Amino acid sequence: MPRKPVHHDRYELHPQLAADTHPVASFALSELRLMDDSNYPWLVLVPRAIDARELVDLDAGQRHQLGDEIDRASRLLRDAFAPFKLNVAALGNLVPQLHVHVIARFEGDPAWPAPVWGRVAARPYSPEALVERINTLNEYLRA
């Protein structure tokens, strides 16, 4: 049976995403946010598209823009942290609002080589480390 969409009048960040991430920058379509888990450099892109749950909920222009923003976030992590691998995923099983994870992975990171979900407990950033990480990300964004 098809799901009945819940319609909102304006874009709102899902409360779980707001609780689990910190704002980094605003792209043309998406909010760029940092996952509050210092185990990995982990970005989350949240398109400001009302009621979008899936990539197919975006129009063609939005999908293209999101692809460009995933590329920008991926290059940001690659340039700032030189990871062994980048993981990019749009799962949304627990948080239905469309969001895309871009995670820098390293051989020997706490979950390597498995996916990051459910492997080890998240390590929230200390206030100082959070400021340092966001400053680093913004320096590379400006470069």
Topology of this protein?
Elements: H1 15-20, E1 21-26, E2 30-35, E3 42-47, H2 60-81, E4 85-89, E5 100-105, H3 127-142
Antiparallel strand pairs: 1-2, 2-3, 3-5, 4-5
Helix pairs in contact: 2-3
Describe this structure in words.
With 143 residues, this protein is α+β, with helices and mostly antiparallel strands. It has a single domain, classed as HIT family, subunit A. The protein has helices at 15-20, 60-81, 127-142, and strands at 21-26, 30-35, 42-47, 85-89, 100-105. It has a 5-stranded antiparallel β-sheet. The longest helix has 22 residues, at 60-81. It is globular. The termini are far apart. The mean pLDDT is 94.
CATH homology group: HIT-like
N to C succession of SSEs: HEEEHEEH
Shape: globular
Low-confidence stretches: none
Question: Mind telling me the CATH class?
Answer: Alpha Beta
Number of strand elements? 5
**Helical segment count:** 3
In round numbers, the mean pLDDT is 94
The fold-level CATH name is: HIT family, subunit A
What distance separates the N and C termini? 48 Å
Q: What is the percent of helical residues?
A: 25-40%
Across the major sheet, the strand order is 1-2-3-5-4
Number of domains: 1
Query: What is the structural class?
Result: alpha+beta
* Main sheet makeup: 5 strands, antiparallel
Going by CATH, the architecture would be 2-Layer Sandwich
How much of the sequence lies in strands comes to: 15-25%
Radius of gyration based on Cα positions: 15 Å
